[in-house]
Design brief:
- The chain is built from 9 helices and no strands.
- It is mostly helical.
- About 9% of the residues have low confidence.
- It is 75% helix and 0% strand.
- This is Sigma-70 family RNA polymerase sigma factor.
- Belongs to the sigma-70 factor family. ECF subfamily.
- Keywords: DNA-binding, Sigma factor, Transcription, Transcription regulation.
- InterPro entries: RNA_pol_sigma-70-like, RNA_pol_sigma-70_dom, RNA_pol_sigma70_r2, RNA_pol_sigma70_r4_t2, RNA_pol_sigma_r2, RNA_pol_sigma_r3/r4-like, WH-like_DNA-bd_sf.
Length: 189
């Protein structure tokens, strides 16, 4: 389902549900849950166990706040706002201060085609990370994927905090160079 089609279908189902069509409302929640799983799965890459809990929290909040939805407004904005607030609450509770400073990608599509995209991206990223030396790979895994602080990563890996920061910087730079080279090759193919 493409983004405009998903928006249109979900909007139609929600309005029918708000008018008392229980089957349409159930279908709305089922479809929305799949889209939220994909969206939140990309944002919570290092915490896959939290995705389903957060999806359920979002759906419950949307159900409880369904009376606040204004039918003449885009459904995406309403859903996205609730999902963002729930995501921020989770990140704060986890003490993921570094993640709170990252932009929450206003441009990131909420209505993704499937959760397979997130799994494919995770597989690809893990493959790319394996190509890095341990001094770069481990700090990236700990800080950027698992959400540990630089100090926690230094204690865990036995590296100094400066070495952790340098490892992250160099590793990300190497990945960006490889990714850019791969994209340039694709453009010539």
């Amino acid at each position: 389902m493409s983004t405009p089609d998903a928006e249109t279908e979900l909007h139609r189902l929600l309005l029918a549900g708000l008018d008392g069509d229980e089957a349409a409302y159930r279908h709305f929640l089922q479809l929305l849950a799949g889209h939220l799983r994909a969206y939140l799965g990309r944002r919570l890459f290092g915490w896959p166990d939290d995705v389903e809990d957060l999806v359920q929290e979002c759906l419950l909040a949307m159900h409880n706040k369904r009376h606040t939805y204004q039918p003449d407004q885009p459904l995406t904005a309403w859903v996205h706002a609730i999902a963002r607030y729930k995501l921020i609450d989770l990140l704060r509770a986890r003490g993921a201060r570094e993640a709170l400073h990252d932009p929450l990608d206003e441009e990131m599509p909420l209505y993704a085609a499937s959760t397979h995209d997130a799994h494919d991206a995770q597989r690809d990223l893990m493959g790319m990370l394996q190509s890095l030396p341990d001094k770069q790979r481990r700090p990236i895994e700990c800080v950027k994927i698992e959400g540990l602080s630089v100090a926690e990563t230094a204690r865990l890996t036995g590296l100094s905090e400066s070495a952790v920061k340098v490892g992250i910087h160099r590793g990300l730079k190497a990945l960006a160079a490889r990714f850019g080279a791969a994209r340039r090759l694709e453009g010539h193919a």
